Amino acid sequence: MKRLIALSLFLSITVAHSSAQTDKSGYPITPVPFTAVKVEPLSFWGQRLVASRDVTIPLAFEKSEETNRYANFENAAAHMKDPSKVFDVKKNMGFSFDDTDPYKTLEGASYLMQTYPKAKIHGTPIDKYCDSVIAIIASGQEPDGYLYTARTQNPQNPHGWSGEKRWQMVEDLSHEFYNLGHLCEAAVAHYNATGKRNLLNIAIRYADCVCREVGDKPGQAKVVPGHQIAEMGLAKLYIATGDKKYLDQAKFFLDQRGHFDPSWENRRGRMFDKDGYLHKIDEYAQSHKPVLEQDEAVGHAVRAGYMYAGMADVAALTGDRGYIDAIDRIWENIVGKKYYITGGVGATNSGEAFGRNYELPNATAYCETCAAIAQVYLNYRLFLLHGDSKYYDALERTLYNAVLSGISIDGGKFFYPNPLQSAGQHQRQDWFGCACCPSNAARFIPSLPQYIYAVKDNNLYVNLFAANEMTTKVGGKKVTLKQMTNYPLDGHIELQMKQASGQFALCIRIPGWVRGEVVPSDLYTYADGKSLNYSFSVNDGEEVSGGKLQNGYLVIDRKWKSGDIVRLHLDMEPRLVRANEKVSADRGCVCIERGPLVYCAEWADNTCDVLRILLNRKPAFSLGSKMVGGTNVQTINTQAQSFEYGDDGRVHTTDQSLTLIPYYAWAHRGRGNMTVWLPNELKF
Questions:
Q1: Residues 121, 679: Cα–Cα separation, whole Å
Q2: What is the pLDDT of residues 139-167, one digit of tens each?
Q3: Helical H runs in 195-280?
Q4: Three-state DSSP state, 364
Q5: Going by C-beta distance under 8 Å and a sequence separation of 6 or more, which residues neighbour residue 353?
Q6: CA atoms within 13 A on the CB side of 90
Q7: Quick check: 23 pLDDT over 60?
Q8: pLDDT (tens digit, 9 = 90+) per residue, 180-220?
Q9: How far is CA 250 from the centre of its chain?
Q10: How far is CA 4 from the centre of its chain?
Q11: 622-628 and 574-579 beta bridge pairing
């Protein structure tokens, strides 16, 4: 760590920008940026941000140093200074995308700077530590902006996935564009958090290099990303700089995709078995047809999710009708046929991919953490495009279940896949050789504040419920809103106008789980006959005009003043969920959820084998609490019967008290059986 601290003394390119934020995002709906939202530290999400500050981000930086991520940039710098110095890339570098781990960690640290500006990383103030890492990254950038240490530290003998020259293997395994995407994402976050251009300038130079050398003009390489995310990153760079060439480049990558090149399949054919569902290798990378003709989510679920989010970016930022229609079709396929009850995606570890329609196995579900994060990105952008609450209903389900499952409560252990059933073979890890999921968690969790609010004209959207204070402008006037809630543990939300004046509409999302809709499709339905309600008041009973639901939002349009308080109550009870009969894995079973949280039965809380129980047809529920992962989680208790063979060889049943915990909290107490779906019908 000493070299990082020392390098911070030499920084000279951190010129502050007077205003890193703009009033318009370029989207039809403008998100309220993370810089304007302060989350309460003792709240549900505040505890997660504290864990990121104290554990996840320091761990990710530490692992970057331990695993030569920084050394790769330093080696690249050393070779450029003295070409006689070359380095053993095979020894120093695990994967061609190792550069992205520092990028992703810098992104997460940038979000944290706003929430905890006095945070320290290994004893160094967080802003200075980040500057020292940025200096190392800058040292490895080639004079024309190219930044890819897998080649630069030994151009004659680069990483085996790199190819002999730039962009030669980018549609295969080089990940040059993938690296660019994560660099842009980190750079924009850092710029917005600090106003400094040191990382932003690095990203601009690399993006400019790509724009010069890649395209459909004579002399350019006509290629597309093998692993998508450059599309998202370039869209963000466009928003930050206003330079349309970055959005054009993102659109080029998408427009060019799917125009079949036989040589590309031949290269990939060496890597994958052509039997089974992935017999079309181009489906793995969503290159089986032009993106505007696609209507089904296929292939690697992370690559797909990033590409779909990029399509939503282009759709929202350009208004292109073809892109809008295409991404809407794909989204409907996901939530209607390929979406787990946890909000996870990716049915199979064969290609870490989507399965066929309604193919949603539980024990072998892949549901990679990165794929869940990608679904948040997709649904977020579709809301910014369409303004419908259904996208946030899906986002919230994924956020509280599939994403949070991927990182331990204390922020220090991780899952790559997140299955919905386990026979004890799964255990959280403190890192992975392929570290995409830990570093992705490191960047995503601190970004939570930016997803809570949005603005359009005279409308202020409240999309997520979390204790926080936010300041923004609505209709040109400053509004400071304080949100007080214990959500997701209960459904009480209080919104206090600390500063407000004038007429505007407060649009509060009423979640689908309150309105009787599990997901925005018929893939899952409630099976208990209950009907939940919501109620609200303004200033303890003041008469309110309007107050009707519009696109899933409770709209309160009035003249607001400082001190006004809106109190919202959402009924929150345990619910039984049943899957569509076409999902064969879940027939005869039900799932239990409460509010946005999906629950599971785990070995540590029950004396019976949770994989050998039958739930009552009409179960009664009670709430409790238990310490898991160092925090108090809310439990659901009910009755069931266990089945076992006795000494007489006959099946014996025993009444059991069954305790369930939130799915995100499983596997915090060692290995053992776990299941989300519980049988409540006899199947033979």
A1: 48
A2: 999 999 999 999 999 999 999 999 999 99
A3: 198-213, 230-241, 244-256, 262-269
A4: coil
A5: 277, 278, 284, 298, 299, 300, 301, 346, 347, 366
A6: 3
A7: no
A8: 999 999 999 999 999 999 999 999 999 999 999 999 999 99
A9: 20
A10: 29
A11: unpaired
